[in-house]
Amino acid sequence: MRLKTALGIAAASAFLPSVASATNGYFSHGYGTISSGMAGAGAALAQDSIAAATNPAGLAFVGNRIDGGIQVFSPRREYSVEGNPSPGDMFPLAPGTYKSSRDGFLIPHFGFNRELSETTSFGVSVYANGGMNTDYSSENGGPFYGGRTGVNLEQLFIAPTWAWEFSDNQAIGISPVIAYQRFEAKGLQGFSAFSSDGDAVSNNGTDDAWGYGYQIGWQGQITDTLRGGVSWRNILKMNEFDKYRGLFAEQGDFDIPQMFNAGIAWSGIDNHWFLLDVQHIRYSEINSVGNPLLPNLMTAQLGDDDGAGFGWDDMTTVKLGWQWHQTPDHAWRAGVSYGENPISDEDVLFNILAPGVQEWHFTGGFTHNFSENLELSGMAFFSPAKEVSGPNPLAADQTISLEMYQVGASASVGWRF
């Protein structure tokens, strides 16, 4: 019990003011400043002790080091409603354009790796996800006529990692993943009539949950100039959000979906690396996220096993990264990624709360070595505006449009020992 309490304090403090909003769904576009500067690519090329977030086998190749950094993240979200309510509408919305007021966040990351022998390493990677984070004013009664409205989901991952270089430049790794998440919803009282437990839908403060799973991976040399890597993380089984058992399907269940990463890295041009990664996230397997609003809202109540969710589809993202060592002490990076957004036009109503519609990310970054031990890395990214529009399924003549764009930057320090 003391260990769980201590971990809870550490997890809560690691969030700083609050974790941010959705990028690839609600997964980050990349983990760690170095990988994020190449649009999140890095399954085949590990360069810091955060690399286990993408591929735990990578820690076999980064040496003894400590990394720590922070990202400043700004998602700009809004929704619009066209069309006036009609008599008999089940769930009409006030026409107009409304912006979420919370648009600045800090996201920390930390990593440690130690070589235990010539062939084995042990490390710990700590990283975070955001998502489903909105805060709309009470103008016109709020989005769902419940006053100030929004949700906030935060996730933290602690991944102790063992990596084994079983052959020259060939390694496998495994990370038992400890997950912590917390959630709060406000202004959703209007959905209580559709719930199996109307008192556990909204305005119940922050609830938290612990869970666990594992991630495994391989990374290695294929030819003199080509590296490869693959990893898989299973569904992280989480405790239920009991305070919101009337909102999320399966009585407050909110497991974290499984994820696949695969990539190659080519160094056929002197001082250059070219990376290609593919990431696949299976949102549809988590009922509270993947269940559509309709017909589920008509056939089951919110909170039931088949209760309505956000209707998110699985998401596959392709990431291209480039790195150039201009000098032995300085490297430049750039990247671009694309993944079709997981929200269809039939599910825009619920996703006013979670407009994870982003598709493109453009990134740049650098690393400068001040000495053999100390390095500083930086990264910036831009995700252009994306809009998804569709009908309000519970009102006859209304159309809802969701839109978001994002900017962000991060810096981290690495220490080799």
Polypeptide structure, described:
With 417 residues, the protein is mainly beta. The chain has a single domain (2-416), classed as Outer membrane protein transport protein (OMPP1/FadL/TodX) (Porin, Beta Barrel), CATH 2.40.160. Helix content is 7%, strand content 46%. It contains five helices and 16 strands. Strands 1-3-4-5-6-7-8-10-11-12-13-14-15-16 form a 14-stranded antiparallel barrel. The two termini are 34 Å apart.
- Quote the average pLDDT: 92
> How many separate domains make up the residues?
1
User: Which range does the strand content fall in?
Assistant: over 45%
Largest sheet: 14 strands, antiparallel, barrel
What is the C-level CATH assignment? Mainly Beta
Write the CATH homologous superfamily. Outer membrane protein transport protein (OMPP1/FadL/TodX)
What's the architecture, going by CATH? Beta Barrel
The whole-angstrom Rg is 22 Å
Number of strand segments: 16
**Helix percent band:** under 10%
Q: What do we call the CATH topology? A: Porin
Q: Which shape, going by the Cα principal axes? A: elongated
Biggest sheet strand line-up: 1-3-4-5-6-7-8-10-11-12-13-14-15-16
Structural class: mainly beta
| Succession of helices and strands | HHEEEEEEEEEHEEHHEEEEE
Uncertain regions spanning at least 5 consecutive residues: 1-21
